[in-house]
Each structure stands twice: as structure tokens, then as C-alpha cells.
Amino acid sequence: MIVASIRRIFASFRTEEEERLYSRKAFFNLLGFLGSCVIFSFVAQRLSRQPREIAHIARANALIRAIQT
Length: 69
Prior knowledge:
Layout: H1 2-11, H2 16-68
């Protein structure tokens, strides 16, 4: 309740156009934040996958060497 009251007080000092601009800016900042979270998540997922792939390749090479001898 108190947050809504504080928001109303600050909004009363702005025009409708200023309020719209602030709202749009906040919305696009939120979209940017969520988008960067998704991108960082995918990058972290890719980076965590690489060591496992290298380990699989090393095991496959060791298995091939063992079979050849």
C-alpha cells in the first residue's frame, strides 16, 4: 500500500507524457534485463557442456587405443 502511495505522489508531479516515457523506459529496461539473463544462461550452459564433451572425446580416444593394442 505504501509503495502505491509513494508512486502516486511522484506521479502527481509529472505530466501524462512524462509518465508514459518513464513507464516505457522501465518496461524496456526490464526486457533488456530479462534478455540478458536468458543470454547469460545459454552461455553458461554452453560453457558447462564443453568439459564434458572433451572428457567424452578423451575416453573415446583411450578406448580406440586400447582396442588397437
